[in-house]
Amino acid sequence: xxxxxxxxxxxxxxxxxxxxxxxxxxxxxxxxxxxxxxxxxxxxxxxxxxxxxxxxxxxxxxxxxxxxxxxxxxxxxxxxxxxxxxxxxxxxxxxxxxxxxxxxxxxxxxxxxxxxxxxxxxxxxxxxxxxxxxxxxxxxxxxxxxxxxxxxxxxxxxxxxxxxxxxxxxxxxxxxxxxxxxxxxxxxxxxxxxxxxxxxxxxxxxxxxxxxxxxxxxxxxxxxxxxxxxxxxxxxxxxxxxxxxxxxxxxxxxxxxxxxxxxxxxxxxxxxxxxxxxxxxxxxxxxxxxxxxxxxxxxxxxxxxxxxxxxxxxxxxxxxxxxxxxxxxxxxxxxxxxxxxxxxxxxxxxxxxxxxxxxxxxxx
Length: 364
Known about the structure:
This protein is of the alpha/beta class and 364 residues long.
């Protein structure tokens, strides 16, 4: 008897081909689109973001083509509470969250997995580019073989139970190969553009979104330099993030960037680009995959954001499930609220949320 897999289908090419690959491996596949956000404009403008009606219909057509059952599951209430609620609170605190990581942690690989198992499925699956393997009796995550599309960064919160019941069939393929497979088997989504924006903010204006959601005006404040001199007025701290240059509306004869956001004083410190480079931080809310807890210092590869290059450094355990991260080279715009993720070659060690950025200490 075939084992049953509930596959999260976004309407994109990755999850669509994942359904086909799972079929080829002999699984009984059930396609499900997780409805987490309602925005009719996506459909009207034909944007087709992962939460739009347009993408639901794409997923439904793929399921029909592959002759698999297809359903839509409603997670909107939980998404609004766990993801959007946190997103707003973090920006109000002057931090920059990563809602995709939180969605994976709370919705896809927790609530959705639990629903799948309760329906009698053996596994859930997604189209993420990463690989799940088992070594020495423990499940691990490795980077997808396509370095340009590897998505292991957003998967560091996995537990052993979740890994045991999760399949990632696209991790052993390149994106080009996935598109070729889709075209070969006649899936119309073979050339569909990847969704890059936050699903509930298709115009990427997070400040405008937050102001609308909290239903009150965001309080304006002042831009200052490191000496406290007022440089101009800002429209509210939720509109800004560390390293930002565009949209400041400040003219001083030289480029200025956001160095620090202070929610207590409602001030934003501006300075020059070279002042953004740091090499130490403290991370909390940690999760490790090859082992339960970091017991001693460890030299690792490090990513301070999804799009950043790999850096080298040391992670040092401290109290309250936190680590000090010491980078061997300065990194630009290390940002509170973002995730820092650790690797050993192609194996995902774990990660956590950046809690504090420490002024650079000269590396000996």
